[in-house]
Amino acid sequence: MKRARRTLLRRTVQGRRRVWIAGPGRWAIGVLLPLAPALVIATTPAAEAIPGFLFLIAVVASTVIGGRGPGLLAAVTATAALIATVDLPEPRTSDDDRLEWLWAAVFLLLTSLAVIWLDNLLGDAARRATAVLDPLFEAAPVGIALFDRDLRFVRVNAAFARTSGRPPMAHLGRTLAEVIPDVSTELAAQLRSVLTAGTVLRHQLLTVTTPAGTARQLMVDAFPVRLSGGPGGSITGVGAVVSDLTERYRMEQLEREAERMQATERLSHRLLESQRIAQLAGFEVNLAAQRSIWSEELCTLMGLDSPPATEDEVRARIHPDEIERLTAMQARAIATGAPFTVETRMIRADGAVREMLVHGEAVRAGDDPEAEVVGLWGVVQDVTDAKATEDELYAAQGELVAAQRDVAEARAEILAERRVLELFQRAMLPTSLPDIPGGALKADYLSVADRIDVGGDWYDAFPLPDGRIALSVGDVIGHDQHAAAIMGQIRSVNRGYALEDPDPGGVLTRLNRLLTLGYPAGTLVSAVVCVYDPGIGSLRWANAGHPYPLLAPAPAPEACPHVTVLGTADPILGASATRTYSSRTLAVPEGGTLLLYTDGLIERRYTDLRVSQEKLATLLSQIVSAPGPVSVDDVIDGVTSGMLADGVLEDDVCVLALQRGVEGDCLPPPGSPG
Question: What phi-psi label fits residue 155: left (phi over 0), alpha (psi between -120 and 50 degrees) or beta?
Fold first, then answer.
């Protein structure tokens, strides 16, 4: 049997025809076979022969339509009908009756043989087609399924069975929802549309769960199956081709995970490079992994051989009195995404307490300023020795109190030195401010009365060749003559850069490169650079780690104006040579007031910086909404006196106020530095 099947398949594949008689005799068949019906027609009257052929045609049709069983039944029925309908001439004899039954038997025999022969031919053709299509159907690498008009499975191949996780026989006679319970109703409706409208469904994604609990991602294409195979034939079912995309989806997920890991690695590399160039100790906080990463420089600074492995080990290196404050500061930085600067105490491995100045910024998931904050990174500077020197100075000053004469002499010397230093400080600040067409400008510098060192705070304003006004306020980290000298140099270089190309972001980028490459490591400067166009009230600005400027609109009747905080800043200058700084543009409304200041105006020991900044914004809103005209002098005097009302000045302060006039109003004359 197997050999016969292999022979049939081989003949079918090679396209050969079955020949039962070989040699020249097969040509004689074509001549002699038609002689049999010719003999019957010749010996039988035409009136009797024609009904027989009609019945024979009916029997053949029944066999083609219904198969062998209905064909044999049609042969018996046709024989009986032939006997009943054919009338022999009268008078009839017994020989005529015998002849009639003989011809009926011959007719029944011939029609039965015809039925068997035709059924064998049709079966052989079906087997030939199946021999070709079945191997292709089963060997297809994608899942193939056929549905009837009730959308029940008629046939599935092995690939489809592997996709659904059920044997092929478990599909037959069932609907798609019975085999795959979690199939969407939308897909079932789309298959029904294929059946009713003849549309083609392409690339429909489907997620299924196999009986083993494994999720698989599939892509389904469906098409109508027609009776004639042509576009006009009636639709008898639906064919579906299913591709398993599970591995592709898994590979894409692995690639995305690899890209995220590479991005983290690049971020760590940039952090290490910035620490190496600036010779500062760096750190990183990864929110997703909930861990802190310390650079080698920071480990060395803290006397550790290896970085802390857990958050508890990190907390062990922070002074207990500082943990709550640093935790709150970190939460604000994550919530707002704003850069931060904080002075804190940390404990070395040998138990020594060190004073640390920490500058940091938020790390976002992308380049979008509104992207999610995924971590923090920054630099740490040890200022213990500087603080110790300052504490020793205060201690020495306290010892002099015991002798009034010595104290008076020392105070006189300190005041004299202070006056000299103040003169030195003010000599590096502008002696006058430019006139603002249709507006006013005022600046002031406040120094700490009891300190003999010099701060690095500055302000500046000068006209540009195109009629615009360049403004800047900044602070060199530190309080000594070196910081004051750097301040004077930076202010002068800032002027040169602005006159060459006044774009604020470009000016800060070049200042940053100058600090990192031309000054000692650890020289840090915060600054805000602006370019104001008095003709249209346009302000272009950039911020490098400096306290946020404030913009107050013109006062509204019976309401305090809402002060806008320009709360966007790039990192402090001097941390990384490769950092670039961006410029931003806004419009100063008519009657509006812009306030620039240094951190001494809002920074107080044991006071939250955010609370101080909110207090300053509220104070500015109240000042500009006062009844009657409010000049820039009123603004400067109001904010300085209001912010210093609760305590003494702890750090030098620079304040600069710009006011845009209202068209048709007369503004007070521009102010000058105090």
Answer: beta
Q: How many CA atoms within 13 Å lie on the side-chain side of 428? A: 22
The separation between CA 433 and the C-alpha centre of its own chain, rounded to angstroms, equals 48
Q: Find, among 484, 499, 260, the residue nearest to 375 by Cα.
A: 260
Residue pointed to by tokens 């700084």: 581
Nearest alpha-carbon partner for 552 in 601, 523, 593:
593
SS3 (DSSP) at 570: strand
pLDDT per position as a tens digit, 20-64: 444 565 555 555 555 555 555 555 555 556 666 677 777 777 766
Spatial distance between the Cα atoms of 533 and 588, rounded to a whole number of angstroms: 10
Joined tokens for residue 318: 């922070």
438: phi > 0 → left, psi -120 to 50 → alpha, else beta; which?
A: left
Among 74-83, 221-230, 419-428, 484-493, top mean pLDDT goes to 484-493
Dist. CA 517–CA 500, nearest whole Å: 20
d(CA 30, CA 32): 6
Q: In this predicted model, what pLDDT tens digit does every residue of 116-164 receive, in sequence order?
A: 877 777 777 666 655 666 677 777 778 888 888 888 888 888 888 777 7
Task: Give residue-wise pLDDT tens across range 324-357.
Answer: 888 888 888 888 888 888 888 888 888 888 888 8
Give the pTM: 0.41
Domains of the chain: 2-138 (no CATH), 140-244 (3.30.450.20), 260-382 (3.30.450.20), 429-660 (3.60.40.10)
For helices 68-85 and 46-66, the axis angle rounded to 10 degrees is: 160
CB atoms within 10 A of CB 641: 10
